[in-house]
Amino acid sequence: MNQQQTSTSLFDRLRFVLVETSHPGNIGSVARAMKTMGFSRLVLVNPRFPDANRQEEAIAFASGAQDILASAKIVGSIGEALAGCNFAAALSARPREFSPPVITPRSLAGQLSVDAGLDAALVFGNERYGLPNEIVEKCNVLINIPANPEYSSLNLAQAAQVLAYELRQAAVGDAPPATTIGFQGEAAGLAQIEGMYRHLEEALVAVEFLDPDNPKKLMPRLKRLFSRTQLETEEVNILRGIARQILKKVPR
Predict the structure, then answer these.
(1) 167-187: per-residue pLDDT in tens?
(2) Residue 210 C-beta-side C-alpha neighbours within 13 Å
(3) Can you name the residues that pair with 143 across neighbouring β-strands?
């Protein structure tokens, strides 16, 4: 009996399945691609080396994603790799006469992100031969990455990175990640900003850049300019300090 998934997060529901991978370095590179996008479930089906996830080359190419390698599950068949899954997507650039429906990575990502009931697998084939027809036919969909038709060759890790990126975007959206890097100042209030505009206008009149009798559209344009910057209190204070110094230096 399959263990029931307790998490609805796409990052927990999705596994990356590599079938008969020849080069340990590619396994390490896929682990790295997965970790950069927040995925961790890696399954290896009959890799060339029985201890493929512990090979020196795999560890080197993982480049910090050794935890993904260490927790990778090594199995002897695609049936074992897909145990507990209710959805599988095969990755192949080669058209098949009797393949499941062909969709793009973005379409797949949208489907998996909205249906929390899908415990899914992405199935990648051998570097040289790809996936055999019998495995593709076990999958619900066939993923084709819309690359340059004149040169559509992606290596294993590149294909995994494209899929992992699209899936992450679908899961978390386009909002920029929270960060403590850079300035995190308090947003200036409307009254503070209006006071700044009056101060700037006074300074501009003092240096004769603004003619109060014929102001044209200078102040409205400046307001539009600053409105696009999401001014912070400290920035307003700096601008008012500049205006203050101008007024000190200019005789009135």
Answers:
(1) 999 998 766 666 666 666 788
(2) 19
(3) 91, 103
Residue 90, helix vs strand vs coil = strand
Token digits for 233?
A: 């209190």
CA diameter of the chain: 88
pTM: 0.72
Burial of 22: CB neighbours in 10 Å, binned 0-12, 13-18, 19+: middle
Say how far apart CA 155 and CA 171 lie, in whole Å.
Answer: 25
The per-residue pLDDT for range 64-97, each reduced to its tens digit, is 999 999 999 999 999 999 999 999 999 987 777 7
Which amino acid, residue 186? E
Characterise 64 by phi-psi region: left (phi > 0), alpha (psi -120 to 50), beta (else). left
Say which residues have a Cβ less than 8 Å from residue 75's Cβ, sequence separation at least 6: 43, 44, 45, 46, 81
**What DSSP designation does 232 have?**
B
CA dist 237 and 86 (Å) reads: 59
Instruction: Report H helices in 1-155.
Output: 10-13, 24-36, 56-62, 66-70, 78-81, 105-114, 133-136
Contact 47, 74 (CB under 8 A): yes
Length of the chain: 252
Specify the 3-state DSSP secondary structure of 132: coil
Strands laid side by side in the 73-75 sheet: 73-75, 42-45, 14-19, 120-124, 87-91, 141-143, 102-103
Contact 38, 195 (CB under 8 A): no
